[in-house]
């Protein structure tokens, strides 16, 4: 055998019979490649050809070693325990209890430079410069370990591989799996029996950003499978189709290749970026856009009377509102707990004790608390009314009963202010009072006896019928009596 072939480097993962056979085949292939060159080629050309054949043979050997074989024999994997790392198949649980996956291939860890302890066909503790993944120990310096991890210390991975297809599990030790696949959204890794760390479905690249040793969590996806984009919100990241990005409900498509679906600022329905001043519309009723129509701006809370967005501000204590026509305070439509007070074109939320001076606290037909102006016809009052009392259970838009008018006189029922008192009434201290024998009925005074008659019509009819029956019976009796007596 030529000395050049004998000195070629070889990497032994174990001292198993199968590996020795493969190495012998590899050596023979290299020897063959070095001795079968045409005699007419120069030494340099022959050496280059030998090296080329060596590399091809090395790749073939790597593929042979990487293939996971199921079965009960040595170096084989238990049925259903082959896993994929990168694009190749490796074992996670060896058929023989004395063997364990070392860099993905089942072998007896005689020198313990990768796997320190074995139990039931799996590694249960890794050497200092190795790390654990799904029952096996791997080295970051060689395939397939270098697909997952870039650097390992104390038997665990510290730095993920540059491809970021795996993330480092916080708090893992030399007896724990210390990396997880970015796309593993179900199995993941559980540390300490309670802290579970998982990836994101359809994710191909991620980071451990935001993960801590105090609790489990989900990796942050940065790239998804072809055809999907990353969606980011307050709950983390997911992989979705671009068409599924809800751009009319709090998200926007960030330009790039691929695009990303990102959340708008809080309470922003549509936006151009995540900046709070990039909102185009806001959560209806509780927020409004603090900008001129057609312009982007900040969403202002109906109750934010201090910060706002420049001159655009809310109303203290307001729960629901509408945007003002020009920069200024919003128009409150419902208070959080107090009474809604409307004065001219301004609104405020006041306590019941502050609802005085021509205003009364009450509740409208929808149950909303309102501080009603006695004279504001538009908002539950009565035109020209200056003093009033609330109606206990209003059934119409009128919420008060008037007791004094600024112009005119109070109607008999207190439902309006009149220029003159109606018939059968007289004015007393600015109010129309029904005369004796008459009672208020709307804006009029009607006869009390008429009311009683009207109310007792049914009773009178009943009495009349009864009287007729009684009289008829009496007449019949008398006739019988006299006829019978006459015959006697």
From TrEMBL:
Keyword terms, alphabetized: Membrane, Transmembrane, Transmembrane helix
Superkingdom of the organism of origin: Eukaryota
Transferase keyword on record: no
Gene3D superfamilies in the cross-refs: Hormone Receptor, Insulin-like Growth Factor Receptor 1, Chain A, domain 2 (2.10.220.10)
Aminoacyl-tRNA synthetase found in the keyword field: no
InterPro entries: Furin_repeat, Giardia_VSA, Giardia_VSP, Growth_fac_rcpt_cys_sf
Listed Pfam families: VSP
Transmembrane annotation, as ranges: 459-483
Name of this chain's protein: Variant-specific surface protein
Taxonomic source organism: Giardia intestinalis (Giardia lamblia)
